Amino acid sequence: MADEPNFTLTVEPITTPQATAEPTELACHVTNITRLPPGGRLGISWGDADDVILCVQSAAGSGDDRHTVASLDGRGNLLAGAEYADRLGSGVMSLTRVPPDTFKLRFLHTQEVDMGRYVCVVSAWTPSNGGDLVKTTELQSPPLTVQWQVKRPSLNVLATPLRDAPVGGATFEMSCSVDTENLEEAGYSVLVQSQDGVEGSVRTIMTLSPDGVLQPGGATDPSRRDNLVLTKSGPAEFRFRLGGVQLGDRGFYWCDITAWTRPTGGHAWTRAAGAESNKLRLHFQENGPAFSIAIQSDTSSVYPQETAKMECSLRSSGSPPKTGDLAYEVRWFFTRLRGGQTTTPVASIDRFGVLRKEPRNSSSDVSIERHDTHTYVLNIHGARDSDSGEYHCVATPWYLAASTGAWTQAGELTSSRIFLTVRFAVWESLQLPLLYGVSASVGVGLFSLVLGLVCAQCCCRNLAHTPRSRNKLMDLEMD
């Protein structure tokens, strides 16, 4: 119609993206406006001007292939196409009017689906006789192509073992490093996963978000969370450590890392790429520690009333547990005859340190000293002749198995035998009797001598003494 409004459309790219996630801004300029009747709506203000439809046109160029991105009708209502409603509502896409008659379409983060040919369709609305606005003129701009060379970001994740766990209770540690392509600045989320075998179910051990929030996985035992450590050791490197490995931890471990991008000043993360690392195998054979026992004594003979000491020493090898995770139950036995088969229990101490003495036919006393975790000493106080014989110790190790986390009883150990002799001290035993005998003999002898002298002087003396004749010749004649 000759009286219909007339105008010219020009589409101009203000900001053209060169890669995915970059901003895009297109401008639709309305110029040379003529024959716009009074009351017509065209570029008067943002909300009451024109009906602008920005469309993406397919490569075939058919008008039927167009779909609406966003529109402003004659009454100023802002509408979005079905595929762009969420983006328009979240603010990552906008449609605005800039005075006098320029309409701008902005994408804050252009996606690959946004590539195509864009057209601007402008409609002029004029008032009818009834007072309503009626669309009288519609003009479409030439298409504007928005396209860039897609460089898809990619990740390559490499898992490297740092510490192997050859035995149960050891520490397993691995490092996961990320190598990126077509990705400048990104945040990473990490999933540490494992499975028992190639066909086993996948378990998530730990997770780390791009914001640095660390959480245990659903397959993690709550009692073992302190044994798990996942840290960021570099700009694109992560370390996972599992302490005190158990039999249930054996299997394959790897990292599932995802790169996320976030615009400057933005809060939402956008997934860019993801990849899994190679798998590392955690495997060890749990045979448990090996133990040995030995018995020794500083002397093999003692005198009566002395104290005899016999030491029972134990050793662990292979994969010895920690000091606090090991205890022994030690028992001592006595055999009267050398090489005898009949043994008599003497005393015992359990793994909790409780001492038990067995009834004995001897007046001597016994005790057990624990010098350290591996050394136990049997003391026989006030040894008697009845304590002479062979002694040996029997030990039962208990250790906290790192592979199961439970106390485990090892096999019983029996030491060799040592013979204890309680000497009979002949000279020491005769000293007092001889001393008493000699003393008694000397005393009796002296007493007898004194008594004899007294008797000789007192009891056997002749009181009627006849003086000897002085006349010797007379005596001889008489004889």
What would your notes on this structure say?
The strands form 6 sheets. Strands 22, 24, 25, 26, 29, 30, 31 and 32 form an 8-stranded mixed sheet that branches. The chain is rod-shaped. The model is unreliable at 42-53 and 56-65 (pLDDT under 50). 24% of the residues are buried. It is mostly beta strands. It starts with 5 loop residues before the first strand and ends with a helix. It has 3 helices and 32 strands.
The oligomeric state of the chains shown is single chain
Main sheet overview: 8 strands, mixed
User: Which percent band covers the strand fraction?
Assistant: over 45%
Helix content: under 10%
Which whole number gives the mean pLDDT? 81
Net shape? rod-shaped
Give the beta-strand count.
Answer: 32
Q: Note the total helix count.
A: 3
Terminal Cα span: 220 Å
Low-confidence stretches: 42-53, 56-65
Structural class, by secondary structure, is: mainly beta
Rg calculated over all Cα atoms = 56 Å
Please write out the topology:
Blueprint: E1 6-15, E2 24-34, E3 51-57, E4 67-72, E5 78-80, H1 85-90, E6 93-98, E7 102-107, E8 116-127, E9 133-140, E10 144-146, E11 154-163, E12 172-181, E13 187-195, E14 203-208, E15 214-216, E16 228-234, E17 237-242, E18 251-261, E19 270-276, E20 280-282, E21 290-296, E22 301-302, E23 308-317, E24 326-335, E25 344-349, E26 355-357, E27 365-372, E28 375-381, E29 389-400, E30 407-409, E31 413-414, E32 418-422, H2 426-458, H3 472-478
Parallel strand pairs: 22-32
Antiparallel strand pairs: 1-2, 2-7, 3-4, 3-8, 4-5, 6-7, 8-9, 8-10, 11-12, 12-17, 13-14, 13-18, 14-15, 16-17, 18-19, 18-20, 21-23, 23-28, 24-25, 24-29, 25-26, 27-28, 29-30, 29-31, 29-32
